[in-house]
Design a protein that fits this description.
The chain is an all-alpha fold. The chain has one domain (about 10-215, about 305-470): Growth Hormone, Chain: A (Up-down Bundle), CATH 1.20.1250.20. It has helices at about 35-55, 60-65, 70-100, 100-120, 125-140, 145-155, 160-190, 190-210, 265-270, 285-290, 300-315, 315-345, 355-360, 360-375, 375-390, 405-420, 430-455, 460-470, and strands spanning about 10, 10-15. A two-stranded antiparallel sheet has the order 1-2. A hairpin with a 2-residue loop joins strand 1 (about 10) and strand 2 (about 10-15). Helix 1 (about 35-55) runs antiparallel to helix 8, helix 4 (about 100-120) packs antiparallel against helix 8 and helix 12 (about 315-345) runs antiparallel to helix 17 (about 430-455). Pfam families: MFS_1 (PF07690). Keywords: Membrane, Transmembrane, Transmembrane helix. It is a multi-pass membrane protein. It is found in: Membrane.
Amino acid sequence: MDVPNLVVSNEGLSKNFHPVPSNDPDEPLNWSKVRKCTNFSIVLFYSLMAFVDLDIGTVIWGDLNAELGISYSNLNNSFAANCAGLAVGCIFLIPYTLKYGRRPIYILSCSLMLASAVWQAKMQTVTDLLLTNVLSGLGGAVSEAIVQMTISDLFFVHQRATMNGLYILMVTAGTFLAPVAAGYVAVGQGWRWIWWWTAILLGVALLLFVFAYEESKYVPVSTSTTAASFEEPPTATTTACEPEQESTAVKKKDADFSEQQLDDEEQQQQHQQQPTTTTPRKKPLRQRFALITRTPGDPLSVRHLITRFGLCLVRFPAAAWTALVYASSLAWFSVILTTMSTYFTLAPYNFGAAQIGLLNLPPFIGSAVGLAFSGPLNDWLSLRLVERNDGGVFEPEMRLWAALPSVVLMPAGLFLYGFSLVDGRHWIIPCIGTAAFGISFSLLGTVSLTYLTDCYREVFSLPFVLGACSLE
């Protein structure tokens, strides 16, 4: 499949933007910086709150055990219920993201998490605990796929590592930093208030999506329609799919997709680069903030999605590698989170909620260090490698250099954390292990997300629909 990317000229480094945008002012790639930043800032806030809602609950396990009499076995079961919701949520919701756009799914996701937070603030029984965690997982599941789809909608190849880095920063802040605040809130205001504050902030996110977030899914204007028509996008033909508008500077080495392997959205993306004879008029505000942006054809069924996922992993090793790496990182993070909340409440540590929250600072600091290398510096390194490459061609594998430290840091951090915790060592030793894990978590997350998006823009959502949750 031939795709354009970045090239360098003899006069120095220059960027050929990929994907090549059309002349439609409503194509998200053509939006102004203010318009893009507004949309993506809302998405980043959503990402932060999604992981706050998913991860702060473990801080108050000791309080739930003491006040409601919920055993640690059931508390662990509640975390498993949350992971089950995460695993199932993407499978059912992402097909509708492809069919009806990003905006309604963001709104639905926020609504489910808001309902979950309110319910958890009022919970009294084990049943409440389990059901609220399932609901929270269902609502937060799409945050691990839809944000990357939005990044692909809005940004060019040379910007994606930075944007994925910002996303991972929000993930790590919600995962590691929010529990610090939650611990102090639990001590000062009571454990129920960590959920009331979460509900308030999720309500703010919901209002932002309803009133300020524009749909970023682009349905291209057909060459056969007038500039004023935005209702009927071009339909797919029965021939093999054509590649995107090419740059003669680069050739990608993977085989073409057949029509049967692409969904409706992907077929439209391939047509979006076809030039129009006239410049389309800008959509009115009512259409830009429409609840649904419909794509022709039926949404992918769950069976179809799973079949396509399997084919994707078999045919494209990059997709399989990304799914495995990202899912494994999430799985090890879950292990750290649950063991931290269980064993540090026992002797010889006997930590309270505030102290359990503070244990999340080392992995957050480590993640911040990792993001410096995997985000903006990764974009910079990729451009430098383009200069050195024969012909000035950008190759997605250039992204992988930034992930090399994780080969050592991830296993070393996990071993240090696990063995020191079992032996009851001073708390600083497992914290060093979680800091090393935090560096690896952000490196692998940002690099793998960006690498897959650069390799296969048409299929990058599939591994994260099932792969990112398969090890939950």
